[in-house]
């Protein structure tokens, strides 16, 4: 058996999601290769060549791959797979993997196995269903399996080895099926939400977007990322990329602080792997208290300024 991990990166650095996916791949087979697609990716390659577990780094460095458009990436991946003997293709269950994985599986005409959280053997996996209320054990007999991995359930692999690399040349008739137009990305000095050690999130109880400034001072002092519940995002308090939960981002920080969040099961599904959960809510009957390690009943508008002062 041989596994291939499709690497998620930002052009310079490997995403933590990919390091966790490599760990998952090693539990399936001891022969693990990776594939990196992009433009000017020498920095990514150098980091990968120091990664434990993997036996080879395959890469394709072309200008048209700079913007990581899934339609173009999938065409190159399918070309790469010709005459190769991989039994498993793994991607992180991030926006990147959720976009790219189904396209690869469709072209290969196989059933994708999504968001796995545990590996029993090379054919059998566990994945959450019903917003995490149940765990489904699935078995696939496909000769080639396309799998997305929930990164929060696997530790990132170590980086202290040295492996070989091999460039994959795209054929001259390789065409771009989709053209890049523009990318509107929000900038922040705070840690990335899905890889932060501490996350502080606000919900509908924040009442408006202006009040999220009460969380910013605390986040800055803790070195935390900022998130939000779907209710806060739908109300227009904060941008969509702050959303944490089943339909947002899955996080597993050392500490998750929920402020003014009631604790809908969809939100809990996105935070349940956190090491510690603390919450602030004025409603002592709020479901969030049932899932929290520490809870404080009170008015967040009185508590947050005091908490920030204590952090000085």
Shape: globular
Q: With helices defined by DSSP (H or I, 4 residues minimum), what is the helix count?
A: 9
User: What is the CA-CA span between the terminal residues?
Assistant: 54 Å
Low-confidence stretches: none
Q: Which strand-content bin applies to the residues?
A: 15-25%
Labels describing this entry:
5-stranded parallel sheet; about 300 residues; 7-stranded parallel sheet; Rossmann fold; globular
Short description:
The protein has 2 domains: 3-167, Rossmann fold; 198-310, Rossmann fold (3-Layer(aba) Sandwich), CATH 3.40.50.1220. It is 27% helix and 24% strand.
Structure report:
A seven-stranded parallel sheet has the order 5-9-4-1-2-3-10, with helices on both faces. Strands 12-11-13-14-15 form a five-stranded parallel sheet. Strands 6-7-8 form a three-stranded antiparallel sheet. Helix 3 crosses helix 4 (95-108). The termini are far apart. The longest helix has 14 residues, at 95-108. The chain folds into two domains: 3-167, 3-Layer(aba) Sandwich (Rossmann fold), CATH 3.40.50.620; 198-310, TPP-binding domain (Rossmann fold). It has 312 residues and is an alpha/beta fold. The protein contains nine helices and 15 strands. It is globular and about 65 Å long. Helix content is 27%, strand content 24%.
């Amino acid at each position: 058996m041989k596994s291939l991990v499709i690497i998620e990166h930002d052009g310079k650095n490997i995403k933590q999601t990919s390091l966790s996916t490599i760990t998952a791949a090693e539990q399936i087979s001891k022969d693990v290769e990776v594939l990196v697609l992009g433009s000017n990716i020498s920095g990514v390659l150098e980091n990968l060549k120091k990664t434990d577990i993997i036996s080879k780094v395959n890469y394709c460095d072309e200008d048209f791959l700079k913007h990581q458009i899934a339609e173009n990436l999938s065409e190159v991946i399918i070309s790469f797979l010709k005459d190769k003997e991989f039994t498993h293709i793994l991607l992180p269950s991030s926006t990147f993997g959720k976009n790219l994985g189904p396209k690869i599986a469709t072209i290969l005409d196989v059933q994708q196995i999504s968001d796995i959280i545990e590996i029993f053997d090379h054919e059998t996996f566990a994945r959450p269903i019903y917003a995490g209320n149940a765990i489904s054990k699935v078995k696939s007999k496909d000769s080639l399996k396309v799998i997305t991995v929930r990164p929060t359930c696997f530790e990132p692999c170590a980086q202290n080895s040295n492996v070989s690399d091999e460039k994959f040349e795209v054929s001259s008739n390789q065409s771009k099926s989709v053209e890049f137009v523009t990318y509107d990305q929000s900038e922040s000095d705070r840690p990335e939400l899905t890889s932060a050690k501490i996350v502080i999130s606000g919900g509908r109880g924040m009442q408006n977007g202006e009040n999220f400034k009460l969380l910013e001072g605390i986040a800055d002092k803790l070195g935390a990322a900022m998130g939000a519940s779907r209710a806060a995002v739908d109300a227009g308090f904060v941008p969509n990329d702050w959303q944490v939960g089943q339909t947002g981002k899955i996080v597993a920080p050392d500490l998750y602080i929920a402020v003014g969040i009631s604790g809908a099961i969809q939100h809990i599904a996105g935070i349940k792997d956190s090491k510690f959960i603390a919450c602030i809510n004025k409603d002592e009957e709020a479901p969030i208290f049932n899932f929290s390690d520490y809870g404080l009943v009170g008015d967040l508008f009185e508590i947050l300024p005091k908490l920030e002062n204590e952090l000085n």
